[in-house]
Write a structure and sequence with these properties.
Blueprint: E1 5-10, E2 13-18, H1 29-43, E3 51-56, H2 67-71, H3 81-90, E4 96-100, E5 103-105, H4 107-113, E6 117-121, E7 125-127, H5 141-149, H6 151-160, E8 164-165, H7 166-171, E9 177-179, H8 184-196, H9 200-213, H10 218-228, H11 235-241
Parallel strand pairs: 2-3, 3-4, 4-6, 5-7, 6-9
Antiparallel strand pairs: 1-2, 7-8
Helix pairs in contact: 1-3, 4-5, 5-6
Amino acid sequence: MSALVTRKDIDGIAILSLNRPDALNALSPSLFVELHEHVAAIAEDAENIGCVILRGEGRSFSAGNDLKAMQAGEKAPHPRFQAETVEMIENLPQPIIAEVQGHCYTGALELVLACDLMICSESAKFADTHGKWALTPLWGMSQRLPRRIGVLNAKEMMFTGRVVSGAEAFEIGLVNKCVPDSELSEAALQMARSIVENSWHTLRADKMLVNKGQDYGLKDGLMFERENSPGRATGNEERLSGFKKG
């Protein structure tokens, strides 16, 4: 049986690919188990991996949660396993870029919202279809989508279930860039390479400070930064800072 999630490392960049193209990379519990294992391994490999790209094989990133697997009784190791895996992605020490083409619906949208950055192609289609199946968010939609695109835009997407194109996703701030399909993978790799050329010590610190700083108002956030910024790299961390420059 083929791996449901594959990993390829290139010059300090880990590329994770959802590998169910015939099923539009539907997010089955089994796929989440493999994704969880890869994310856990990358989190422990900060000396060798400075950035991550999350993508899907075939014509779609992912059509979302695998309803057929749900109906067949396939279950994750425990009820909150998928949500915890999404949080693991958000909490990776390394920056992570979502590379999105084709469908990115519901659970898949919740998955990419946990990524730090996102590049999509012109064929990308984003939607929250919970309402079409009488489901409610469990993997972070109600919290991460409003923080990404604002409450008004998030409510419209969630209440209507309408499809947002790649071009509109860029306009509303859901993605960093929208590029032609033929340029998508190269654009994501180019962004990742520009990231790993910088100090990995700084990258990890920046991500931690920005993410955790969202829990505070401005005054408390400024205090959090002053008290928790790790300062200039030294020793082994300094070596990592020159990983791509030495």
